[in-house]
Design a protein that fits this description.
The complex is a heterodimer of chains A (343) and B (194). Chain A is mainly beta. Chain A has 3 helices and 28 strands. The model of chain B has no long low-confidence stretch (mean pLDDT 88). Classes of the chains: A mainly beta (343), B mainly alpha (194). Chain A: This is THO complex 6.
């Protein structure tokens, strides 16, 4: 509900605010994605714009202030860009209920013509539900989309046909994750349930209602799940309930992380867990449940965290975070913020 | 580079001109005094003193020559020394690079091991919360035994009940028969009395 209200509010103020010089004050970065070569970063904000930054020039020894601004900014959608995903050649962006694909090669040449734009088959044509999360299932080469209509749509990337719809959530979907080996799709939603779907049969194999577990639940925040990530047999999920680590084979929570505020994105990295959310910091946690460090950053509340693992060039292996600010913090060393890119 | 060093060399020569001019001057003076001495018409003492003076200058020249030769040798040896140190340092640099990359690999390995240990710990914590398998088995066994005992008792009770039922049935049927015989007998007796 919070997200819906926020999106309606931001769309209605979009026209007014984007004309003013202090649009930067009201900007929020919702999504990020690195290019397949690892040298560029694309970020999407609440005005529906996408900015492409050149990481290699921002990180080079002779970088100037100008290299910390985008090489290209364009309006991609009418609504906020809540999700960005990169395939081997294209950048997929989701906004205003539709998905557009932009060729990375064309974007680097500053050509902003979309390769294609598609829209899932929504039942009601009156209200267009926003798309909150997108991910790719590599084994089937399909795009998994989770949105405001409580359903998960699966689209074949080659043909563009929407193959199936997974129904089961009773409120809109916040986050998605794919377990390649087991062929499962996991989705977390506003209804507080993490559902595990088998991508072949399209049936919900398991449903974990995190808020029903005493150790995780935080009723003062609510029951929604806003962040979900998986790695082999382990799953991290959080939002209203505390961020918790789950062992998927036994479907039991093994560690609860004492982070105040609702976490919006978490990642496994080497032997640590990196998490961002409400709170002006990036939290580093150990799998056992202790919070090792909290690194301060510019935005007051963070929405997205991205790790550049695409490139072998060590210079561009960075962590970037964005949130309720027009600045995106870049960390070359996980322990401190190196500099900020400006939208 | 060649042009620079030439200029440097020329500049240095001009600077050290004092010394070089000293040696050259000495040799020129020696030559001049030698020719003057050869053509001298002065007294033999003067000639002798000239001769001694010339020997002195010659010795000075030889001395400075010896000195420069030694300096030259020293420079050559210093150069060799520096070359050696240079190659040593290069080797150290490459071995340090290798060690660094080895250590980086070690770190990755250690991080993986730590992650596995942490996963193990996390699972172990959950498992600890569940009761011990042996205890549960023992409890199950005890419950089994109880069940068996209770079913045994139930069987016994049922058997007893059956037995009592049968005994009562026998008793009741004998009573009925007796009643009947008594009734029939009493009827007979009544007839007989009448």
């Amino acid at each position: 509900l919070q997200r819906k209200l926020r999106s309606i509010w931001s769309i209605s103020l979009l026209i007014l605010l984007s004309r003013y010089k202090d649009r930067h004050l009201h900007m929020s970065v919702f999504s990020q994605s690195f290019s397949p070569c690892g040298r560029f970063l694309a970020a999407g904000n609440n005005y529906g714009e996408i900015a492409v930054f050149s990481l290699s020039s921002a990180l080079s020894p002779d970088a100037t202030d100008l290299s910390q601004t985008p090489i290209l900014t364009f309006t991609a959608h009418e609504g906020p860009v809540f999700s960005l995903f990169s395939t081997d050649s294209h950048l997929l962006s989701a906004g205003n209920g539709e998905i557009s694909a932009w060729s990375w090669a064309e974007l680097i040449k500053r050509n902003t013509k979309a390769a294609w734009t598609r829209r899932p088959n929504y039942k009601s044509s009156l209200e267009i539900p926003e798309i909150n999360a997108m991910t790719v299932n590599p084994t089937e080469n399909s795009l998994v989309i989770g949105g405001g209509d409580n359903n998960i749509h699966i689209m074949d990337l080659e043909s563009g046909v929407f193959k199936s719809v997974l129904q089961g959530h009773t409120d809109y979907i916040h986050c998605l994750s794919v377990r390649e080996r087991e062929g499962e799709i996991l989705s977390g939603g506003e209804d507080g349930a993490v559902r595990i779907w088998d991508h072949r049969t399209g049936q919900s194999v398991h449903c974990i209602e995190v808020y029903k577990y005493e150790e995780c639940a935080r009723p003062q925040y609510g029951k929604w799940i806003s962040c979900l990530t998986t790695e082999s047999d382990w799953m991290l999920c959080g939002g209203g309930p505390s961020l918790s680590l789950w062992h998927l084979r036994s479907m039991s929570p093994t560690s609860i992380f004492p982070l105040s505020g609702c976490q919006r994105q978490a990642n496994f990295y080497q032997d640590m867990i990196l998490s961002v959310g409400e709170g002006q910091c990036v939290s580093h946690c150990l799998l056992g449940g202790e919070v090792k460090a909290q690194i301060p950053c510019t935005p007051h509340s963070l929405n997205t965290l991205a790790l550049n693992l695409n490139s072998t060039d060590n210079r561009v292996r960075v962590l970037t975070v964005g949130g309720s600010s027009h600045q995106i913090d870049v960390f070359t060393n996980l322990s401190y913020r190196t500099f900020s890119l400006s939208f | 580079m060649g042009a620079v060093t030439d200029d440097e060399v020329i500049r240095k020569r001009l600077l050290i001109d004092g010394d070089g001019a000293g040696d050259d001057r000495r040799i020129n003076v020696l030559l001049k005094s030698f020719t003057k001495w050869c053509n001298s018409t002065g007294s033999p003492e003067e000639g002798f003193t000239q001769y001694q003076r010339m020997l002195g200058t010659l010795a000075q020249c030889e001395f400075s020559m010896g000195k420069t030769l030694l300096v030259y040798d020293m420079n050559l040896r210093e150069m060799e020394n520096y070359e050696k140190i240079y190659t040593d340092i290069e080797q150290n640099i490459t071995s340090a690079h290798d060690k660094i990359s080895e250590c980086k690999k070690e770190i990755q390995r250690a991080k993986r091991i730590r992650k596995n240990r942490q996963e193990y710990d996390a699972l172990a914590k959950v498992i600890q919360q569940h009761p011990d398998r042996h205890e549960t088995l023992k409890q199950l066994e005890a419950l089994d035994k109880e069940l068996q005992q209770l079913s045994h008792i139930k069987e016994n009770v049922e058997d007893k009940l059956e037995l009592r039922k049968k005994q009562f049935h026998v008793l009741l049927s004998t009573i009925q028969e007796l009643q009947q015989t008594l009734e029939s007998k009493s009827g007979d007796c009544g007839d007989q009395v009448m």
